[in-house]
């Protein structure tokens, strides 16, 4: 096969503009050059692309089928060119991101849509899991970068950066006795079962002698909604509307709960590329609006 992409472009332009002369004007070429290119393409393919018995350039049956193939080949060639340009200017060809399942869905969804628009030729892989799991994805080199709630010190194999924080509070199911007395004291909380976050190497504070544990904020929130106890939860988790009973916040001034810090982590010694840096900066902005 001796045909080339330039011949395909002239064939497609002729089909789309309705005549060789119109295609020549569009491409900035001589009409004779476009006519010759199409003739050579037909000779190489072994089919007539246009019905020349009519005044205008009308596609033959074979031409109609091959036009679709030619358009797709040109689209792929353009995609190849754009991806090569992105790589040549330092962009990542592929990026794997891991997100703590407890981070706001709206912020993550908005970020992913912006990535699609800003880096259309990059291959993206997304992971979700608990705070411990997403750190594990980075350690295993399945993910390049992870975003999760800061639950304590990291191993030496990670580098990290603080990118924001989200509010947390004490929550119970609607109708819980703690809601009858607001604000409450720690001794009031101690009368009821506490549903506590359990994370590797992190000892969360128990304010009640009766404790159940889980490594998932969502599982804890579901148990709260089932009237199994109270829990300290990120506010964005407690606000979801899919629980069996709505969750309501209990005011306990003596706890003085600080915002939950969110951090970005990656393998120690690895240099983050410009795409990862942009994602970190943009996600920090989106978290700020979610707080």
UniProtKB/TrEMBL annotation:
Protein name (Swiss-Prot/TrEMBL): LysR family transcriptional regulator
Species in which this protein is naturally found: Thauera sinica
UniProt keywords, alphabetically: DNA-binding, Transcription, Transcription regulation
Start and end residues of each HTH lysR-type domain: 3-60
PANTHER family, sorted: HTH-TYPE TRANSCRIPTIONAL REGULATOR, LYSR FAMILY TRANSCRIPTIONAL REGULATOR
InterPro entries: LysR_HTH_N, LysR_subst-bd, WH-like_DNA-bd_sf, WH_DNA-bd_sf
Similarity section: Belongs to the LysR transcriptional regulatory family.
């Amino acid at each position: 096969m001796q045909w080339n992409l330039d011949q395909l472009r002239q064939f497609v332009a002729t089909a789309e503009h309705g005549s060789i002369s119109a295609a020549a004007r569009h491409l900035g070429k001589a009409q004779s050059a476009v006519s010759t290119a199409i003739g050579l393409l037909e000779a190489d393919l072994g089919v007539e692309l246009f019905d020349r018995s009519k005044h205008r350039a009308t596609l033959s049956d074979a031409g109609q089928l091959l036009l679709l193939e030619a358009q797709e080949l040109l689209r792929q060639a353009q995609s190849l060119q754009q991806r090569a340009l992105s790589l040549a200017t330092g962009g990542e060809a592929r990026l794997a991101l891991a997100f703590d399942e407890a981070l706001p869905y709206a912020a993550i969804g908005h970020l992913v849509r912006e990535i699609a628009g800003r880096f259309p030729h990059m291959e993206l892989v997304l992971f979700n899991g608990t705070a411990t799991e997403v750190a594990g994805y980075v350690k295993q080199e399945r993910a390049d970068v992870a975003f999760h709630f800061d639950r304590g010190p990291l191993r030496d194999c990670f580098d990290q950066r603080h990118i924001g924080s989200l509010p947390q509070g004490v929550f119970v199911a609607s109708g819980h006795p703690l809601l009858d007395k607001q604000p409450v004291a720690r001794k009031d909380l101690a009368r009821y079962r506490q549903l506590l976050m359990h994370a590797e190497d992190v000892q969360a504070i128990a304010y009640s002698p009766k404790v159940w544990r889980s490594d998932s904020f969502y599982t804890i929130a579901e148990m709260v909604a089932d009237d199994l106890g109270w829990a300290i939860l990120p506010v964005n988790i407690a606000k979801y509307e899919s629980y069996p009973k709505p969750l309501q916040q209990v005011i306990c001034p003596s706890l003085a709960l600080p915002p939950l810090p969110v951090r970005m982590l990656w393998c120690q010694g690895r240099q983050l590329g410009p795409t990862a840096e942009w994602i970190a900066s943009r996600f920090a902005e989106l978290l700020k609006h979610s707080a």
